[in-house]
Amino acid sequence: MARPTWRARGRLTAVLAVLTAGAMMFHGAVPNSAGRVGSLVESFLPWLGLPVVALLAVALLRRSAVALAALLLPTAVWTYLFGGLLLPGGEPGPDDLLVVQHNVSDENPDPAGTARALAAAAPDLIALQELVPPALAVYEEVLASAYPYHEVRGTVGLWSRHPLTDAGPLDIKPQGIAGPWSRGLRAVVRTPRGEIAAYVAHLPSVRVRATGLASASRDESAVLLGRAVARERTERVVLLGDLNGTADDRGLAPLTSQLDTAERGFAFSFPAAFPVAGIDQVMTRSATVRHLRTLPATGSDHLPVAGRVTLR
Q1: Pick from 91, 93, 80, 90: nearest CA to 48
Q2: Structure confidence by residue, pLDDT tens digits, 247-256
Q3: Closest Cα partner for 155 from 180, 189, 126?
Q4: What is the model's pLDDT at position 165?
Q5: Is the pLDDT of residue 166 over 90?
């Protein structure tokens, strides 16, 4: 069988470039009815830039003008969708709050070290998930001096430099989960710049299986959390959580449709050993997440994320 000519390879590269651009531009059209394929694609959407880089190398090697011209399209689409996240976040301002979000893992071998590492970032708020005894007592002890105000409901907690009031649990438990399950917390933070309703949440895990993405419980919990946020009367809201989904995942649409996500920073937080997805989130209403970044690894399978929030 005859090998493809260089011209044919250039045309093949051009076709692949157009298909990659189409996947990025029209990912919302990928159906979610069978195996939640749409959510699966959206979970790793930024990584579609890698095939573009590989195709660019092929086009340069083959010196194919057709392929290079075609690659302008996916490059422009990726830059439009994600290029802004790579820009510098700017300098902190007087109205900024630094917040940290971290799933500390219920198997963390060093909760004291993890607490000290988070406090070293000097945030105003620290939101934690997977708090279990006896590790909870360790976090409370280590963080007590710098964070005199804290609330814990179930396995989630919030530590603050500023007074907390009106704290209570959030009912975000999906119907299919039996037994005790408390992964939501809401409290009002009284900052020098005014009150903020702080939500801490840990949505159900998702699994990638041969049949697709198993995310029904996560999606149901996101709907319940979205309803709670919609009912919130405090104007400014900050949501901190392990949402088990990226900002592009349509499963989180009940939240992303009414809350703003980070303007800068990818903050891939999971898994800690080789982060490929940003599932630890900071979202806001009547405030802006200027920049979101990961912090150094702790004893958890997640990386902590730190967000700089500007109050409007």
Answers
A1: 80
A2: 999 999 999 9
A3: 180
A4: 98
A5: yes
Q: Are the beta carbons of 51 and 24 closer than 8 angstroms? A: no
Tokens linked to 287: 């405030």
Nearest CA-CA partner of 312 in 84, 96, 100, 101: 96
Residue 264 pLDDT > 50, yes or no? yes
CA 6 to chain centre: 42
Rounded Cα–Cα distance for residues 250 and 253 (Å): 5
CA distance 162 to 177: 35
Q: Environment class of residue 198 by beta-carbon count within 10 Å: exposed (0-12), middle (13-18) or buried (19+)?
A: buried
> Of 303, 305, 304, 275, which is closest to residue 289 (Cα–Cα)?
305
User: From CA 277, how far away is CA 275, in angstroms rounded?
Assistant: 6
Report the pLDDT value the prediction gives residue 6, as an integer from 0 to 100.
47
- The band of 2, judged by pLDDT with boundaries at 50, 70 and 90, is very low
Rounded to whole angstroms, the Cα distance separating 224 from 161 reads 29
CB 108, CB 299: distance < 8 Å? yes
Q: pLDDT tens digit string along 186-217?
A: 999 999 999 999 999 999 998 877 666 788 99
Indicate the SS3 state at residue 92. Answer: coil
Per residue in 77-107, is it b (16+ CB within 10 Å) or e — as a string? bbeebbeebeeebeeeeeebbbbbbbbbbee
Tracing tokens 């996560």 back to the chain, one arrives at 218
Contact 259, 291 (CB under 8 A): no
Give the strand order in the sheet containing 237-242.
164-169, 184-191, 194-202, 237-242, 280-285
Contact between 294 and 274 under an 8 Å Cβ cutoff? The reply is: no
Using only C-alpha atoms, the chain has a radius of gyration, in whole angstroms, of: 21
Residues in Cβ contact with 72 at an 8 Å cutoff, skipping those fewer than 6 apart: none
Q: What is the DSSP letter of 302?
A: S
